[in-house]
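Typical record is below.
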Amino acid sequence: MSEISINKISKSFGNVEVLKPFTEKFKDGEFITLLGPSGCGKTTMLRLIAGFEKPTSGEILIDNKVVSGEKTFLPPEKRKIGMVFQSYAVWPHMNVFDNIAYPLKISGVKKEEIKQKVEKVLEIVHLSQYKDRAPSELSGGQQQRVALGRALVAEPKLLLLDEPLSNLDAKLREEMRFEIKEIQRNLKITVIYVTHDQIEAMTMSDRIILINKGVVQQIGTPEEIYRTPKNPFVANFVGRVNFIKAVSKDGFVELSNTGKKLPYNGDKVGKVIVAIRPEALRIDQKDGTIDAKLVSQFYLGDVNDCKVDLGNENIVRVIDHVETYGAYKENEKIKLRIKSFMVFEDDGKDYTKIIT
């Protein structure tokens, strides 16, 4: 296990600052996910922690020891880290056992000790029965487990994973999410995981660090990030959301161009943006307070996925119980009940075009 301290770290390439100053501490045994769109700076942050890049400013400490700083720089091989990349990077001419054993062999570990450690790791990654197979005889998920085993065999203090599941199909990704999380829990190892996939981040993380354009937008548990996003970008990137321009005054927010008002006792006044999760909207002819019109509905087996017009073609997405599918016809007038909503200051950007 390992504790990581990041103190005012930034990174520039020439005149371009790709990661703005950032400070945070990762606890022993914590699963941290660096989440954000492509090019946001998350992989750069991971490479700084790994030692593949030198920071422009600030310092990184692993277990209170400076590994990157103004006067100190420890190369990756001396940081006691394990690394798993997006590509499997397994040696095609070596079998599974030798692939996993490779880091120990080049470190001069004795043959009997290598055998013990590799067999232990093979059990952890569920590959004992495949130890004599060539990589070409393995599935994509099995090859990724080989890469994971190779990263774990040297018993690193810290495990870094850079989009390790992006080359797998949807079913394998789901299986590997659970396997990686189970391994992390059993070994109690500190993990820093890079992804642009919000589902991976939500299901695996103890905490998420959400980054956009080199700036950390929010740090929190999956529940905190989802339920209390700090800005519209966070609300939109993690989960689905409807954005509606509004005006806040006198204990209400009035939704623009709809004539609809929602009770609001928050601190934001004037022009605002109201954000409503689709699952926070319900078609409810009895207790609904918002008049609307059903535009379309799609049966997805477990839910009814609808588009609803609040007025003047202000379309929102509603994800309701599947029992409502077919209970109302398209273009029929309905009533909506809003379970919860969020209010942000209007920063001038037009988020209303986003219906996810």
Summary: The longest helix spans residues 170-187.
